[in-house]
Write a structure and sequence with these properties.
Elements: H1 4-31, E1 32-37, E2 40-45, H2 62-66, H3 72-78, H4 93-100, E3 112-119, H5 123-133, E4 139-144, H6 150-162, E5 166-167, H7 182-193, E6 199-205, E7 210-211, H8 215-224, E8 230-235, H9 249-252, H10 263-267, E9 273-282, H11 283-288, E10 303-304, E11 307-308, H12 315-318, E12 325-326, H13 335-350, H14 360-364, H15 367-376
Helix pairs in contact: 4-6
Length: about 400
């Protein structure tokens, strides 16, 4: 049996050891990062949390661009646009992961988001986009254009081998500028994505689309859709289809047995609509089976296939846009705009920057969302205003 003095000494030693242990754990947690990575525990020194800008864009003050209401600073930067030089990137999985993985662990999200992107060039840009949207719960699929150069194909295939949540389907399609085979390429990704669990929406993208919402903002916005799909549809111009042909149900022979169909149904004509490739689709929609803007002001005055190529002049208003994706930004035109947008996403995600507060009722009141709610719970007098868009 211990004497009172011995008990007091033992207690004092226990307190000292416990205090030292707590201080040691606190110091190690502030210096080292202990977290699970793809099923394995990773113990490494923590990175300093800051956005690593490209050498070609370090002279740009991105914060000033975002607050540049009159555009004077943007015009100054746009006079000598930043373009990155091709880099001899190391494609070892160790280096690829180091360039993409988050600097600190990310909190869990309510559901993962799948990204299906058609790609054919600018690998480094695509890596930067992946870093900007990366989360272990998300899944990324790259449908590689059949015409893509061999080096590019090899890099994307290596990227897929380095991450369990990155896919590059083996079947490839030759994508035309007018969209030919684009749907089939996205469909290859959708089939591959269905083998992954945990994602609730898939976002369809093209090579030069840029995500302008963080991982957490994207999930919050998609949650506000309440299970509805976000697909861009608008009236189709007459030049997009042959007006000399008959487009009624009878002429198209849509019914095998026309005797069971009324004359009114047979004589009704199809109404054509057009849309954009970019879309956010629920997992259910993919199982059974965004944004391209030509109306917003294009401050850069540069277009490709009648679509604005955004530059540093557009950064301030694009950063405030309620949309998920900006189509398009191109490395060959202005990497300053791309790097600043990626820095903004980084700061919002990892540094707690709150420069915008998104109004979720805007998404909740979209026509497709309201109709989906009505379809689930019908009620008399429902009217749909299809003029509300974002």
């Amino acid at each position: 049996m211990l004497s009172p003095k011995s008990s007091s000494n033992l207690l004092r030693r226990l307190i000292i050891v416990t205090t030292a242990l707590c201080i040691g754990i606190f110091w190690m947690s502030s210096v080292y990062d202990l977290r699970p990575l793809h099923g394995e525990w990773l113990f490494r020194k923590k990175r300093q949390v800051y956005f690593q800008r490209k050498n070609e864009t370090t002279h740009i003050n991105c914060g000033r661009l975002l607050q540049d209401d009159k555009g004077a600073y943007a015009k100054q930067i746009a006079a000598s646009r930043s373009k990155i030089s091709p880099r001899n990137l190391s494609m070892s999985c160790e280096h690829v992961r180091a360039r993409i993985l988050p600097p600190n662990p990310l909190r869990r999200i309510d559901f993962g988001v799948a990204y299906a992107r058609i790609v054919y060039e600018s690998y480094e840009f695509l890596e930067d986009e992946l870093r900007s949207s990366y989360h272990p719960q998300n899944v990324f699929c790259y449908a590689i254009d059949y015409k893509a150069q061999k080096e590019f194909v090899g890099r994307v295939e290596t990227l897929a081998k380095c991450f369990p949540n990155v896919i590059a389907p083996g079947k490839r399609w030759s994508i035309g500028r007018n969209g030919i085979n684009g749907t089939l390429a996205h469909y290859e990704c959708m089939k591959a994505l269905m083998t992954y669990e945990g994602w609730g929406y898939v976002i369809l993208m093209q090579n030069y689309d840029v995500m302008i919402k963080t991982v957490f903002e994207t999930v919050s916005i998609l949650q506000s859709l309440g299970g509805a799909n976000d697909v861009h549809v608008e009236p189709c111009g007459p030049f997009r289809y042959n007006r000399l042909l008959n487009w009624d149900v009878r002429s198209l022979k849509l019914y095998r047995n026309e005797q069971q169909v009324t004359s009114a149904q047979l004589n009704s004509s199809l109404t054509f609509a057009r849309g954009a490739v970019q879309a956010s689709l629920t997992r259910n929609a993919v199982e059974v089976a965004s944004w391209q803007s030509t109306t917003d002001e294009c401050h850069s005055k540069q277009y490709r296939h009648a679509v604005c190529i955004y530059g540093v002049e557009d950064l301030a208003w694009v950063a405030k846009s309620p949309k998920l994706i900006a189509n398009k930004m191109m490395p060959s035109f202005d990497y300053g705009a791309i790097d600043c947008m990626h820095e903004l996403m980084f700061n919002r995600t990892y540094l707690g920057q709150e420069d915008q507060k998104w109004n979720m009722t805007l998404y909740e009141n979209l026509p497709g969302v309201l109709y989906n709610k009505y379809r689930q719970n019908p009620y008399p007098g429902f009217k749909l205003d299809c003029n509300l868009v974002i």
